[in-house]
Fold these 4 entries.
Entry 1:
Amino acid sequence: MSNKFLSTTSAFLLSTSMLVADVPKVTVDIAPVHSLVSSVMEGVGKPDLIMPAGASPHEYQLKPSNAKSLEDADVVFWIGEDLTPWLENGLESLAKNASKTSLLGVDGIELLSFREGALFEAHDHGDHDDHDDHDDHDDHDDHDHGKKKHDDHDDHDDHDDHEGHAHGEHDPHAWLSPKIAKVWLNSIAAKLSEVDPDNAATYFSNAKSARDNIDALMSEVNSILDPIREKKFVVFHDAYQYFEKDFGISASGAISLGDASDPSPARLAEIRKRVVDEAVECVLAEPQYKQGLVKAVVEGTNANTAVIDPLGVKLETGPSLYENLIRNLAINLAKCF
């Protein structure tokens, strides 16, 4: 083997390793965010996922492999401490040199306050197309300065159904709004482009394609939900109001709080009474949580049950997970009636 061949091969391997090294190492918290980031990074690299399928984001504990991923990260995208407060210390101690983006802090989204009590009143969906025009914002960089539009939620003392549980200021399940996901795609592309300008064109092109796919997805989901839009249903935990707002539907109540903690007997009785009194037709369970609580609510009633999954537990991780997750929510909800 000639020295010239060895020299050329070594130079090629060195240049290839340098190219690979230049791609930022990206870590994300939950599978839906991993999917959005994967879409933006497609053809460039793949992000690491902290929380495995089947785990609850409200109570997960970091594993050694997660710690290594955070230590190696150049960029971290996470929902925020309202969803995963256990991750905040890890980010501070392990990902000291990483650029960290809390997606709930991104400018241009509307955060919703937690709904109080076990029962929800139907809300007005007349403005549920408010923020369709985010496609024009191609530079939603890492905004963590609180200028987002949100509902004030400072008056917790007047509510008596928190069952002793403390939660963050806002409902953190914002990934279930495809409209918000579109804004996040821009922010993800902008942050990755800042860290890795050589691939900026790919990041923004991928983000545009992903936003177009979400537009088509929303039309599909609206068609799926049209036949059941006025039907009454109860969710397992109060995680779906962003989805409800985007698609003009309203849950009648939730068995559990927004963090899926165990409901009190009084809360279960209140939900069951509404199911009976108002002939609620559907009570929704989730794969991560106690099926027995749903059974206790529907037993002896005419309500159907179905399983919906806000995290994509059984879906393959990657770019397609987000669209499949939102589509499956609609399909399984519609099948419940």
Note: The beta strands are 26-28, 48-49, 75-78, 99-102, 110-111, 149-150, 233-237, 253-256, 282-285, 304-307.
Entry 2:
Amino acid sequence: MTLSERIDSLSQLGTQWSSTDFDVESIFRLANHQNNWFTTASLQQALDGVLVFLKPEVLTNWTNEYKIADIASKRVGVVMAGNIPMVGFHDWLCVLVCGHTLHAKLSSQDQVLIKALSNSLIAIDNRWKEKIIFTERLNDVDAIIATGSDNSARYFHYYFANKPHIIRKNRNSIAVLTGEETPEQIQRLGTDIFSYYGLGCRSVSKIYVPQNFTVAQVYDHLESFHGVLDNHKYQNNYDYNRSILLLNKTVHFDNGFLLMVESTDLVSPIGVLYFERYQNLETLSLYLESQREKIQVIATHSPLFVGAVDFGNTQFPNIMDYADGVDTIDFLLHLS
């Protein structure tokens, strides 16, 4: 298949899944049955992000940034996470648009969606059948892209040490508030916090606030997200973490669906948002730069933080926003 043929069939996939005639609801039901974190709202948000990537003009402009057409096809193993719906889609897309053969090891928590997309793509052009392989073992591949925890990353580094690889560890996202945010900006921050129930690496798990900041400045504008409690898994996590805080007599704030705890840690449990006070933005900017390997996205309206996004945008990357800042296409084009 030529690059233009690959782009054409991928854009047809986007058109098909965007159609009101396409039965996406039955696929959503299967995905939710497998993983109760995958609610209809979460699945639709993830799908909307995927469909943006599959627009023909987006695919064309993206691939025009590289010299893709004449590369030799390789077998690329991709170990996909399952923390949020279709989290492995961008790697799936990168491998296929480059013309490589995908050997995908799916997470047990996200078996439905990528397979459904792949089946649709094969139905559009049967030549994809030879380019998309689902497997439990990745012994016979030329390169590896693996996403997992810090513990699994150590295993991946050891097991795939002799193959070209991209191996990703745990990352979380943070927000920096100046104290001058509008109610609308705090509401948009709520999208960064609560989308996918805080399970994604682009979910804000901690906020940095000025010394005189009060928790009410956040809580007063998050009430519209009370519906997260409708998911029993979120409620169970919230109740459990609240009990632990009470048992340990840890100072915390509670609005009935989100616990806020002052902490120097970056990664908070589900249902908990950490906050830390800073003295000045310049010092904080230098500190966060030193922590870049642990941070996926910074949300703020301060211009001091290079590469940061505005509130409400952490969960909506564009097609050139590569995980951990590693250009996946560049990696795939230089496999020898």
Note: Residues 3-18 form the longest helix (16 residues).
Entry 3:
Amino acid sequence: MKAFICLLSVSLMPLAGCVVGYDTANVERIPSPVEDTLQRAVDNEHRVGIAIGLVNPNGRYFSAHGVNDISAAEPFSQHSQVATGSVTKVFTAEVLAALAMENRVDLNQELFELWPGHARPGGIQLGYLATHRAGLPRDIPVAALQHNDATPLLDLLGTDQVLPAEYEYSNAGMALLGLALEETTGRSLDELVASRVAGPLVLANTGYVPNADLLAQPHEGLEPITGDANRTPSVARGAGGLYASTAELLTFVERHLYPDSSQQKAWFDLALGKVSGTPLGWKVYEQNGIRIYHHGGDGNGYQAFIGFRTDNGVGVVLVSNSSADDDLQQVAQHLLMPDAVSLPSFDYPPAVNLSVAEMQPYLGRYHFVGDTNTVTISEQSGNMYYSEFTARGEEVRTARMYADREGGFYLRQIPLFFKFKVTSGKAVSARLRLGNNRFTMERIE
């Protein structure tokens, strides 16, 4: 049992020092371990379709797995189009950068000049919206979305916070940025993205209107999503609603790494914060001197991630036509930092969502047979958690538990699998499997 506890502790440590034997700045294909991981994600029914793109100093490389629709056989590919979700925010911010390069707008322009009846003088500026420093809430008001009405958004502009505020990610702020660009130019955000980003970068199928011939079917897990779930009202298009493919998103990333002209480089330098010190739209991750520009988007049956690092010229795009609560995005992070981020395991079965009521039979305290360690299974914010403690009450580890379709549970990081024995509506014991090892824990209370 002591060996089990040791392995549990080590397995849940932060991912680091995972030497993989390849440098993604020098490869000339998608590494086989990455391809194998994505294929397992499809084979084990975690995702319907996945495509990944890699650009480095040697060229562009793609790998695609699965199908466009669970009920059809058409392969998912780098040209399959998906809704990019919050990746849209980067495009909105880059429209701002492009217009600023043309002197059509100024990052310091106050929204009071556009909407004096809503904003206050000396208040929010365009640049604050693009950098999430406008002191605005995260969510777009429901009334704005329901009625495609800008008024509930504009009503947020009267904030009396000291500006620029601390960074706070805001969908509302990016939606307002899109509206402000429309108000300033007299053109729709659709037209601005087409003329200032998609057109110059030759992204023929990137925009707010999907290409019916390329659009992949969205799925929640393996279930197709039908209807208008991905139709974003125009009032919110600064924050979401853009459609694109892996191939075109990789072109977008590639141009940031390898600009076609000095003018294009100046545009991207402004967007990446090399002029002002703060990136517009992009998120930034820094570790040990490495800087990664990135953004992700998911929901309503799609997932997308873009990221790149300028020190070695590596860029990555990952998209899927299914939403799932898993570690798929970690594959892209691995390609950006292969020696620091491990590839996830998709050997475990897909997770299913349980209601709080369905979790109740399993919640409580347990002890391992033949050992002094105890386990508490609890519910937190609608999720189940496994917490292990020593006999002295010291916490060994806490990790989220996932339910599978066969009535079992597992921890993803190990993986450790559970099968509970339930009597009279309450779990009385559980059998645990870790590789070839088997353990039993019994309920204490």
Note: The longest helix spans residues 171-185.
Entry 4:
Amino acid sequence: MKSHFDKVSYDLSRLFTQAYSTSFSLGISRLGKELQGPVYAIYGFVRLADEIVDSFHDYDKENLFKLFCKDVDKALEEKISLNPLLNSFQEVVHKYGIEKELIDTFLRSMEMDLTEKEYNREKFNTYVLGSAEVVGLMCLRVFVKGDEKAYQSLKALGMGLGAAYQKINFLRDIKADFEGLGREYFPCFKLENFGDVQKKAFEKEIERDFKTGLEGIKKLPASSAFGVYLSYVYYYSLFKKIRKTPASVLMTRRIRISDFRKFTLMLGSYIKFKLDSSLKSKTPE
């Protein structure tokens, strides 16, 4: 039965997400039960595309990505795919009204990873929009369950948080992106000139994105608010750790949050969330 295949598809999206990201899996697990499968499906789709352009170095990545894009279009058109990750994703797209434009914008940014090595401000903004902001909007479609008015009022949340998370990833992965993939995402300067002055300027952008995101979290439905808040707390904790790290150190090692620290963040976030449902403070302690 097709329903059995669909269930297996969602299960594989969940396993795929858990295998690649403990932090996102933790946040998804705190969403309302009915939201978890759809968000796992979105992350599985996003992560698969990212793996093609970032990891399959011994293969023809350009050709693999073209085939992937064709498979995405086919899955969306026929409302089924023999690729379980795409099968669960296409169902979520149709059920929650995720615009094809968001998907195409995301795929264009992934394609940039195959061709672009240095980014000016325009290319950087385009890349962040596609690689992160529209992913936040896909998830927001799920969170509001078809409420168009709520979606339009909360778009800044999805885009702001997505931008903040991606920019933190850039700082965290600066060494691997440059040495392993030959990419310089940071606009307006060369990485050999990357120092604390440039780092602080970039951190100010992230602070603004976080502020926008937190204001939106306060307005999310109860079924999604805590899960999104937990991801916010995790990334803000990572941000604080990166902010304390000199630029010279970031160029030599990847900054991480330990699994134990993630667990304590979850407990602390739950207590704060319950005691202060309005989340009046702008940043978690």
Note: The chain has one domain: 2-275.
